[in-house]
Amino acid sequence: MLREIALITEKAFQEVSIELLETEFLPGKRFIIDFPFKVAIIIGITGSATGRLYLECDLETAVKVALIMNFGERLDEPNDVYTYLAEFGNMISGRATTYMTDKFKNKEFRLSPPAIFSGKGLETLSPRIKSKMLYFRGKLGKFFVDIGFEEEHQ
Amino acid sequence: MAGYKVLVIDDSPFIFKAVKRALEPNGFEVVDNAPNGKIGVEMYDKYQPDVITLDVTMPIMDGIETAKALIARAPDVKIIMLSAMGDESLHSQAREIGVKQFIRKPFKPDELLEKVNSLLGE
Q1: What is the domain range of residue B54?
Q2: Nearest CA in chain B to A43
């Protein structure tokens, strides 16, 4: 099930990137985001199973994404970078959970509002979560996505 | 469509901006942005908008609860639900309450304009 969820999430990420940012991100091999200042979004998934989607990029990539979402205009406030990236993550999660609901007919998923984290040396641990890591590269930069659910739902 | 007022209930400032860009060049007045359903209901009383765009996933009061509260106040209120989620169970839950239009995020400006015009034409 987790492998199928990873493929669904990959599809959702690519679709939303093209529709929203008009740019393509390709899935690929593992990498480490070596930029010191990172931005991370966590969106909780509830309903038939409890999980979460974690989205991470460097600040430079987050700014590029936010500027495109802001129709190429300067951001009103510096913190808009985070709220725009949170909306990007929300759209990916929403699309992914919709596909999950379609795929696993007896399941229904809902989202919780995004939590935003930023800073140097971000590291997250999710002890009870079994997850798949996805890596995307594109013209705007690199994204790391980790989609997972609590172990009893695997 | 000049003079029609639109209220955005969404915790994302991006969506407020996207709705303004889609509707204001076509004569609509996008009056305000409520970041959650509770404030959205208060703003409904203040502005009496002709159309509301309503997010589903929001803090404090989500879209379904907000739609219930708005329809209890004004049964003919015109709501377009904007959501990143597009599954049928969510749509049918919203339809049962009285929401008639849905748009999946991200959306194209023309798509929103068409749905708003369709709602106002009913």
Answers
A1: 5-121
A2: B57
- Total structural domains within chain B: 1
pLDDT digits (tens, 9 = 90+) for B58-97: 889 999 999 999 999 999 999 999 999 888 888 899 999 9
Q: What stretches of A37-151 show up as alpha helix (H) in DSSP?
A: 59-69, 80-103
Residues of B contacting chain A (CB within 8 angstroms): 11-15, 17, 21, 57-59, 83-87, 89, 104-106
ipTM score here? 0.89
pLDDT in tens, A65-99: 999 999 999 998 889 999 999 999 999 999 999 99
Please state the length of chain B. Answer: 122
For strands B79-83 and B101-104, give the pairing. parallel
Please give the share of chain B, as a percent, with pLDDT higher than 70.
98
B48: CATH: 3.40.50.2300
**Token reading at B104:** 């999946």
Closest residue, chain A, to B56 (C-alpha): A111
Total number of residues shown for chain A: 154
On chain A, the residues whose CB falls within 8 A of the CB of B59 are 113
| Spatial separation of the C-alpha atoms in residues B64 and B81, rounded to whole Å | 9
Q: Give the CATH fold of the A2-153 domain.
A: Chemotaxis protein chec (3.40.1550)
Query: How big is the A-B interface in CB pairs under 8 Å?
Result: 62
